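Researcher: First entry.
Model:
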Amino acid sequence: MPDISRRAAILGGVAASLGAAATLAGCADAKASNTGSFLVRRASSVLTMDPARGELTNADIRVDDGRITEIGTGLSAEGADVVDASGCIALPGLVDTHWHMWNSLARGFGQTSKGGFAPSMASISGLFSPEDSGLGVRLALAEAVNGGITTVHNWAHNVIGPAHAEAEFEAMHSSGVRGRFAYGYPQALGAAEPMNLTHLREFAGSLPDGLVSLGVCARGPDRSEDAVWQREWDTARSMGLPITTHMASNAEAAALGGVEKLDARGGLGPDVQLVHLTAASPADLDAIARAQSPVSISPWTELQVGYGLPPIAAMQNAGVPIGLSVDNTVLSGSADMFGVMKLTADLPGGMDAKQGVVADATVLDWATAGGARSLGLGDVAGVLAEGRPADLVLVQSDSVNTAPVYDATTLAVRAANPSNVSFVMIDGVVHKRDHRLVRVDVDVLLAEAQDAMASIRGRAGI
């Protein structure tokens, strides 16, 4: 196991890099108690995403000690902090299934003096210190909560050294946001070199309890040699860790036959998430569906980087489990899951020249319950139901861009945006109230992010 004093020093440095006010906010998050009671009162609609309950109108949600205890009308407010939800839609916290959080400092870096996305990021990725990576994750998490995302899958694909992994994990753990940390590799790692599997094993044995679980993000057959990805697969599975990999992102990658390689070796399954599959063939999708490997799509970034149009309808028709993704704010610009839902709902109709190819209700499921199931977190996220952890958001339905309301699901998928999110609770702890983040000192966080990125740009000559 890693030396505890070394880890404490690293994590202390991460906290110090955020400044005094941000450090206090981070400590409050890490130690926030979910003991206590809340009554979310009179939501105009409650989209439970629970097939047994469906949508409720003019309903209350009672939360006690971090869990939903009742959903109904006229519930008791005794001993509870009452949250006025009139004029709001209540829904489960949104689930992002693939997000490179470390590079959130590089927002808008998709085109620079160095060229497009790949050369631009290559010019700066090696310059990120552990503190920079942790700060990028903290910035991403603040934006996630602001936009109603309560579960994240942090795809850490710039783990330059052990300290980078530890800094990213600590940023997640201290935030109080639910999620998975997918341990990865340095951006500059050669295709013949494996990730640091020795530290992965040490790291896995020393993690604290909490809302953040561990997985592995690997380069897979599309981006590493066969002996390398096979060793990484075997190691992750021997440790019981879920795996995620980019696959068939474009025609060139798809031509490598990575899906077929995985299928032939038993490398697919519910524990292996495939990301993008923009150029996947019908045979690929059939193999993935048979194995029930979940897929994460990120239509905004797939369009901008030139991967092409994600075959959303074909995935759905094949029976592939689907989750949605911001991917990165370098390309997407913002962590707007509402925008991701809207584009996901409309792209199949544009591709097939037919309205309604994918239903709004289906897309909302992919952003909540279905996304949680795809990460193996279906028992703790994505659904509002008695006995489950209280991860919920309120979306204003009486704003100029959301009213009048015809259908709550359509509003969530097509009209809402992060500015409409007025309240966010994760595991019974309030993170946003009255449109204000209450567990993050935003001014300090943004100042630190600006300074860190200015330093990185200066060293990169951009």
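Researcher: Second entry.
Model:
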Amino acid sequence: MALVINTNMQSLNAQRNLSKSLMPLQTAMQRLSSGLRINSAKDDAAGLAIAVRMSSQIRGLNQAIRNANDAVSMVQTAEGAIDEMTNALQRIRELAVQSANATNTSLDRGATDKEVQQLIQEMDRIATQTQFNNQTLLDGTLGTKTFQVGASSGQTIALSMSTGLRVTQIGQIAEATAGTAVSAVGIGVGDVTINGSSVGASVAGSANGQAASSAYAKALAINSSGITGVTATAVTGTKVSDTASAGVVLDDAGDSYSLTINTVTVASYTGITNISQTELMDRINLYSNQTGVTATLNGVDMELTAADGRNINLTAAKVDAGAADTIAFAAGTTETRGFIKLSAADNITVTDANNRLGFGASAVIAKDAGTISSVDVTTADNANDTMKRVDSALQVITTMRAELGAILNRFESTNSNLSNVLENITAAHSRIMDADFAAEAANITKSQILQQAGISVLTQANSLPQNVLSLLGGR
């Protein structure tokens, strides 16, 4: 190899290697001082792009968690207010039950009603003044709210708060009694649907007159079919005496008369008889426990009714040996059937092609205009109406409360999931961006040693051209 002085290749080589060892040293020192593996795009361009997207997701997830917590606070505010409204309704219903009792005078009912009216006013105040961040929650004006519970667009949960709970908005009832008595044929499976749900077959009861065709059996079939929110009540039919002001008057020794109600013979007379209307009524009522039928006087007429809506099957047998006799119920067999009354907190749709219930082939029973705002307990009838309207209001309120409870559980699940995603995304971001101090400490030690060695070698390389002087001096 030629010995030259103008070009020191060994020095140039040492300088190049020294520069190469300086770059890792600078990188390691930068990572150790910042704590980051990527300090600029040149460190890892692809990794930086991924990390930037992850940073956006992490910040979005943190805000989404705060959003979900705010939503929980809003729903809890509404649910707490509804709890107080529920308590008020329960108290109103309790007072209505108390007022419906016959032991109360009109003065007692008036005093009870004062508390009812105060509770109604408080319910309306709660509905109109319960707010969260200046937004009224329970009067129906809030509408549907969409909560952003994710880091990206469209990751939302919607909650409808459109149902108003003011006292002028709840308590309506749909209630009607069929225009005609139930048919003489029982309900078969699929014969009748109410609000789209099929009514099961009617089955005869165990007592006299409770045939499968009776209003009693049909009401029981409806109530046993699990039709949400709909209640059926059997309403008695009324059998009116055929002769006004009459009991049983037989004017000949050969005359006879017997009266059978629901297979039970309640009266039997032979020969000359003179039984007044009141005496015959008392005789019929003597067997009420067996027949289920009660006799009452309505002006000059005697009326037979069955409180549970069972049929009133009446058979009167008469032998007239002489002049015409006077009897309340003429000879022959009759069947008096009851009516069905349906009630619910919402509209009722009845489909009954064979008119088993008496509402016709199809009927819609719409909610009335009455609300909690108009109830009072000043009379027994009003107290009974109050109970029905409170039950309707409670159904609306408990349905809304159930929805709020369900959404609260969902928000809690959302929060849990967001926290889990945040944890994992943060860990992934850390693996890309954060410096490994152990590795960087080893790198800086290595780079420092290489630097020291490079400087030493460069010093020696720079001194090599001086060997030429030895050659010249020796000459």
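Model: Note on the second entry: Residues 195 and 349 are 5 Å apart (CA to CA).
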